[in-house]
Design a protein that fits this description.
CATH class: Mainly Alpha
CATH superfamily: Nucleotidyltransferases  domain 2
Radius of gyration: 15 Å
Shape: globular
């Protein structure tokens, strides 16, 4: 495995080849590696019973993999700074790829983010949401092989427009 100094290692070698990984910018690699690292921390917090931190780390892991795609596709004018940008990016991708489950998995991450503030979701549901987010990360990681956003992609798609 050859990466630049300061570059994180490929967190998903079964999904992204080393050649895929090396083609990504450092910032994209940092977002993707951070996504996987935060999911690991979310699982630790869940085992410790700290549902608030497990929830926030789960949200962060989902947000970072979306930011990785947004950063990777920045030449296609994809934005990824605000929550609404992330939501619109996932909705646009779900619509372009005809994969509405992608948006539903991301909704689990949004529920986790809300639980960080409310802290009123039981451990079983936090665990289920983390499972959804883990699946979401697995589904999003191959997007980093695409040199640009998919045909038909638009961040103007609203969640209510995502095909069922």
């Amino acid at each position: 495995m050859t990466t630049r100094p300061g570059s994180p290692p490929n967190p998903a070698p079964t999904i992204l080849t080393e050649a895929d990984w090396r083609r990504l910018t450092l910032k994209t690699r940092q977002y993707a590696a951070g996504s996987y690292a935060l999911m690991g921390r979310a699982r630790l917090y869940l085992r410790e019973g700290d549902l608030r931190q497990a929830s926030e780390k789960g949200w962060g892991s989902a947000a970072r993999i979306v930011k990785a795609a947004g950063e990777h596709w920045r030449d296609s004018n994809v934005v990824h700074q605000r929550h609404q940008d992330l939501r619109a990016l996932v909705a646009g991708l779900a619509t372009a790829d005809r994969h509405p489950e992608l948006y539903k998995m991301f909704a689990a991450a949004q529920d986790l983010h809300e639980n960080f503030y409310e802290n009123n979701v039981p451990q079983y549901i936090v665990s289920l949401n983390l499972d959804q987010v883990a699946g979401f990360i697995t589904e999003m990681t191959p997007q980093l092989r695409r040199p640009s956003s998919p045909r038909g992609f638009s961040q103007e798609v609203r969640a209510s427009e995502v095909a069922e």
